[in-house]
Amino acid sequence: MCDQTFVAVTFGPCDSCSKASPLMNIYIKNEPINYCSFCVEMMACQGLQKGETLASLKRECDNLKKKLEEERGKLNDVELHQVAEKTEVLGALSVKTRRVLKGHGNKVLCMDWCKDRRRLVSSSQDGKVIVWDAFTLNKEHGITLPCTWVMACAYAPSGCAVACGGLDNKCSVVPLSLDKTENLAAKKKSVAMHTNYVSGCTFTNSDMQLLTCSGDGTCALWDVESGQLLQSFHGHTADVLSLDLAPSETGNTFVSGGCDKKANVWDMRSGQNIQSFESHESDINCVKYYPSGDAFASASDDATCRFYDLRADREVAVYQKDSIIFGASTVDFSLSGRLLFAGYNDYTINAWDVLKGTRVSVLFGHENRISRVRVSPDGTALCSASWDNTLRIWA
Amino acid sequence: VPVMARDMSDKEILKMELEQLKKEVNTPRTPVSANCADTITFVEGMLPNDPLIKGVPDDKNPYKGDKGGCIIT
User: What phi, psi does B45 have (nearest 5°)?
Assistant: First the structure.
């Protein structure tokens, strides 16, 4: 390569190679750099190499993705509904609305059952968190939060506290008092701090630890007492919208799903991403573990719900219909795992036969999008929360 | 406070994805047919006790029939 002839204003030791030579005075990101012409050339070539590395990284990624599909494909000898051909067909479901819970002033965004199978907590865009007795419709507690859009709420395993969070980027724990006159909001304790909205939260197997997911793309495990961050989970490349803890017998893992269309399974102790699945064509709004712990389901804006077997490491069923064109926002399994209830943006809840892949029933009643469906801990009822400001109990 | 993916450069994100994929290619996996058979066995074992499928007699179901006591606040 031949040197350009240039007008050298300075002569001295090069900033890069220290050799005394005519220096080119250039600026990189407003920083003055005094390099000899050879070192300027070298720097320009390195820039080229950086560009190549990005493309070659992308190629490597694509190749590995193909290899991963191949490896998974080798064991894909049959589909779930084929194995289930001999299984008895389900009769019609006799599930109807039994209760309508009115009280929120705006969209209900989330709900969670208490382990006692009759209480539940719900949170709303109006900034309120309400604890209900589902049998009697009694509102047992009402907590007013300083922020609107409380997108996540969870009942503590002991039944003595609830967690809630949302646009305030925090997740707080509120102890539930037996004293009806007490202002619960005053006892609220901030536990989780994210750098964007909190989209989901759950207690782990005790009241002492809280798992959260956020619009900041991460999930995190927190100690409730101290507010300390115990473990953070990185891997999603966009907002994480949902998480679910594995059933306690199957160990310390959880699954998360988000706007990067990925569902990731994590080891809670190491923070490692163990498995990941990318088959949805749009945002994953909700993920839920199968009762056995060996599989999970997801709901997506692509109007499908999918079923992933963790031991086969692949998707084994897709629940979709040409007539269903609106996004699915939430899923939960019935007690036996035979039914998958899914809430959609077209105001309906579809009940799918998990094994056969067919739709068993459509539950009508809500007057706006379904934001959350949850089967009660003993499997006797389904609760749905909606943007129509109400919750419904179906049994 | 956890670090955001949006704070990482494209190159760092690709590197992270690459590391993850390398691990996942070697994940132990078992045939779909065997696992699906397991799932079906699980369901068939639990099905008789699934209240939403088998139904619950009205007198045992807290949601059917009388709502019971209602407290007006």
Answer: -70, -40
Q: Do B39 and A355 touch (CB under 8 A)?
A: yes
**Is B22 among the domain residues?**
yes
Tally of structural domains, chain B? 1
Q: What are the residues facing A295 on neighbouring strands?
A: A309
Chain B residue nearest residue A394, CA to CA: B63
pLDDT in tens, A93-105: 989 999 999 999 9
Let me know the angle formed at the C-alpha of A157 by A155 and A158, rounded to the nearest 5 degrees.
Answer: 105
Pick the CATH number of A97-394 from 2.130.10.10, 3.30.1330.60, 3.40.50.12780, 3.30.750.24: 2.130.10.10
Does residue B2 sit within a domain?
no
CB under 8 Å to A337, separation ≥6 — which residues? Answer: A290, A291, A292, A354, B39, B42, B43, B46
Contacts of B73 in chain A (CB under 8 A): 138-139
Residue A382 at interface with chain B, using a CB cutoff of 8 Å = yes
User: A349 forms bridges with which residues in the sheet?
Assistant: A343, A363
* Whether residue A72 has pLDDT greater than 70: yes
Could you say which of B1, B16, B30 has the minimum Cβ distance to residue A312?
A: B30
Asked if residue B38 is part of any domain, the answer here is yes
Residues of B in contact with A316 (CB under 8 A): 32, 35-36
Give the H or E element holding residue B3: none
Element (H, E) at A38: helix A37-74
Question: How much is the average pLDDT of A236-247?
Answer: 96
Share of residues in chain A with pLDDT > 70 (%): 94
A214 part of contact set with chain B, CB < 8 Å: yes
- A103-161 tens-digit pLDDT: 999 999 999 999 999 999 999 999 999 999 999 999 999 999 988 999 999 999 999 99
Domain assignment of residue B68, yes or no: no
Put simply, the answer to whether B63 touches A309 (Cβ < 8 Å) is no
Spell out the domain ranges in chain A: 1-47, 97-394
A4: confidence class by pLDDT, cuts 50, 70, 90? low
Q: What is the pLDDT of residues A165-213, one digit of tens each?
A: 999 999 999 999 877 777 888 889 999 999 999 999 999 989 999 999 9
